[in-house]
UniProtKB/TrEMBL annotation:
PANTHER family tied to this protein: HEPATOCELLULAR CARCINOMA-ASSOCIATED ANTIGEN, METHYLTRANSFERASE SMALL DOMAIN-CONTAINING PROTEIN
Leader sequence segment: none
GO molecular function, one term: methyltransferase activity
Superkingdom, natural source: Bacteria
Keyword Methyltransferase tagged: yes
KW Mitochondrion (keyword) present: no
GO biological process: methylation
Name of the protein this chain belongs to: Methyltransferase
Keywords annotated in UniProt: Methyltransferase, Transferase
Length: 212
């Protein structure tokens, strides 16, 4: 699918005094024609700016640059773009090309440098380690627990950390994942409140530190 054939819109976000313009699809039907209830795995959840990504971006904005950052399942790449805006070196990844095209467009619009790459967690084509590995709503299926943990173990610097953000509704799948992660990482958990015009969302923020 060619992004040039899609109807686009922009949304402005403000994180700790920095305002960025984010490109996203204006018409969902242009990128998905199926039944979202019958084809959940194919539904483009990435096509929206979710509260978890904003909470993650806000946290990353507090980390002094420069750090090498890997974002997993980046979607529209809000945390990556915010990180790049304060001087971090960022690689944004996803399992398909289209969301990465939106990240490239947003990076160009905001005069930012963000590298992008398609990444299959089961067969990661990464050649370097990172100071930070970040992800919002990346824990969603038990079958991906092991591939995700392998990425954390193999591509995180010894002094680095993993930072994850998930809505509290994901506790059912998140807690078993964190339990598995405790074999290799010290897990720190905090709760962040995100207020929007409609409601207040509760976001679970986790930091994973390598056990030495």
């Amino acid at each position: 699918m060619d992004i040039r054939n899609l109807t686009l819109e922009t949304e402005e976000i403000s994180i700790r005094g920095r305002t960025l313009k984010i490109f996203l699809p204006a018409k969902l039907e242009e990128i998905f024609q199926g039944d979202p209830f019958l084809e959940v795995e194919k539904f483009p959840f990435w096509a929206k700016i979710w509260e978890s990504s904003l909470v993650l971006a806000d946290y990353v904005a507090t980390i002094e640059p420069p750090k090498k950052i890997l974002e997993l399942r980046a979607g529209l790449g809000v945390p990556s773009l915010v990180a790049a805006s304060i001087g971090h070196k960022v690689l944004a990844t996803d399992y398909e090309e289209l969301p990465l095209e939106f990240i490239k467009l947003s990076a160009k619009e905001n005069n930012l440098l963000v590298e992008t790459k398609i990444l299959d967690w089961r067969n990661p084509n990464l050649s370097e380690k990172f100071d930070l590995i970040i992800g919002s709503e990346v824990v969603f299926r038990k079958s991906l627990f092991d591939p995700l943990l392998e990425i954390f173990k193999n591509y995180l610097e010894d002094e680095g950390e993993v930072i994850l953000a998930h809505p509290s509704e994901r506790k059912r799948v998140l807690i078993p994942f964190l339990y598995s992660a405790q074999k290799y990482f010290k897990v720190l958990t905090s709760i962040r409140k995100f207020k929007s015009k409609e409601e207040t969302a509760e976001i679970i923020l986790n930091r994973l530190l390598k056990i030495k």
